[in-house]
Amino acid sequence: MAVNIFLAVALPCEAKPLVAHFGLKKNTTMHAFTIYCNEAVYLTVTGPGKSAMAAGLAYTQAVSAGLENALFVNVGVAGHRMHDIGSAWTINKISDADTGRNYYPMPIYGLPCATTSLLTASKPQFDYNHEHLCDMEASAFFETAARFSTGELIQCLKVVSDNRLEPGRNLDPKVVEKLIRDNIGLLDLLLEKLEERAKLVNSPEVPNFEYWIQQYRFTVSEQNRLKNLLSRFSVLTGKSLEPADFGTVKSGKELLAALESRLSTIKYEF
After folding, report:
1. Model confidence pLDDT, tens digit, residues 29-44
2. How many structural domains does the chain have?
3. How buried is 154 (Cβ within 10 angstroms: 0-12 exposed, 13-18 middle, 19+ buried)?
4. Are 143 and 236 in the same domain?
C-alpha cells in the first residue's frame, strides 16, 4: 500500500535538514508556497502563523492529488517555560488561544519521547508563563489536515528552542536547523508507527466484526458505525475488541455506546 507523507514546517531553517534527510527536490512549478517532494514525501514551508499554515497545507493538497488517509506531521520548534532546549515532544492536546478550540492528536505508543499539551497563539509567547509548549501554527495544522485525512494519522513533533532562561526573541536559524536535525531519527520512528497505523485504517478487514454482528442485531447504519468503531479501537489500542472486553452489554446499541465511550477516553490516558 502506498502512503503519502505530508510534512509541514513554518520556517526554511526547519525544512533544510528534512530536505537533506528525505532526498527532496524543490518543485519549481509551484510558486504560492515552497514545496519539496519525492515519490512519497511532500514538505511544505508555509511561513509562520496559523493563516499561513492552513493555506500552505490546503495548497499542497490541491496540487498534489494526495492519497486518501495520508500521513500528516507538523515538525517544528516551540517555546516552553522550563523544558530543556533540544527536548522533543509529541502532542496529545492542542489548544487555540484565540478561538478556545481544542484538538486531540491520537497517542502514538512506543516512542522514546514524552507527550504534552501545546498552546497555539497568534503572537510569540515570550512571557513564558504557560504550562504548555507554545507555537503559532499547530491548531491550524491539525484542523486543516483533518479535512484531508483521519485524525489517527495526524501528529505534531515539537522541539524546544527557547525557555525562560534562554528566551527566543532572536533565534539563530542555524540553531533551529540543528535542533530539527538532531531529532530526525525520532521523526523516522514516528512515521514508521504512523505507517503501521495507516495499514490498519485502510484495511478492508475489521477485526471481530463478524463475531459481533452474530451476537447482536444491528441496522445497516449501525453495522457501518460498528465497523468504524472497531477499526478505530484496533488502530488506537493495537488489539481487536474481544468478547471479554464488553461482556456485560445486552444489545447492539449498548455495545456501540460502550465502545464510543471507551474510545473517547483513550486520548486522556497518557
Report:
1. 888 999 999 999 999 9
2. 2
3. buried
4. no
